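Just curious. Invent one:
>
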Amino acid sequence: MNAVQLDLFAETLGRQEALERLVNALKQVKPKHKLLPLDEYHVIIVQISGGKDSVACVLHLLEQGIQPENILLWHQEVDGRDRQFMDWPCTRRYLELFAQKFGLRLEFQWRKGGFLTELMKKDAVSAPVCFELNSEVVTLPAGQGAKVATRRRWPALAASLQTRWCSSSLKIDVATRALNNHPDFTKSGLNILVVTGERREESSARAKYEEALPHKSNSLRRRVDQWRAVIDWTEREVWEIFERFNLLPHPAYMLGFSRCSCFGCIFNTADLWAMMREIAPERFARLAYIERKIQFTIDNKLTLEEKANKGRLHRLPL
């Protein structure tokens, strides 16, 4: 079913019911790419944001009997190590405590200068990628084919990663470069599984995602698979696994936010922008200042101040 068919379907049944039917239909489709048995992978890397779905992937692996020493948590720090700009200030600590609780290894990767440096880029290549290796930091400069470009535009409110560059430039590309250059994972004959937490229930675009596929860094020298481990789970099932492990979620959920991406996520609703302005006025003001500086707004029509003014604070636990 393509996007046009889905839209027509939605007009008749209502978009939510159409999405539910599409998800149920896709559950019956066998994955085109067959994974190895989980115990045949030399390492299972979970791309963990701190949000409920990626955490659920880890808990699911543990329930499947995967030993903690075979699981490696990778988190891409959107703001890098220089300043707080878009991300939650508590995410790193939440992940450290989560990893400690379950005896898991945790490594961080980032683009130098983070979101703000990439946003303000003018006639330059993207900043180097950094990743942790034991107690050291490895820095990967831009490759020879890197293009000189100017951004000074917020990521687009779109599904395409070509225009919604925050995910591609600050997360996906960073993780892929780290995986391709990490000395522990470049040896010939390795089987590596990369686990991500997308769910079909989240959107019509994600409803069409494959459950398993070759990772973009797969090669003849090593096998790298990607597995969306909770792709067919409902939100209720995600919260149920938290309950089974008696685990508290990221503080964002406790504050009334519906998802844990960036604190200043470009997809924030008017309510979420109003909530951010209420609990972190200096962070909100910084984003509003950058809007004015580059003369380009995050929303297609409204400034941050205008959008926040339309929001309510009823979800905050005040």
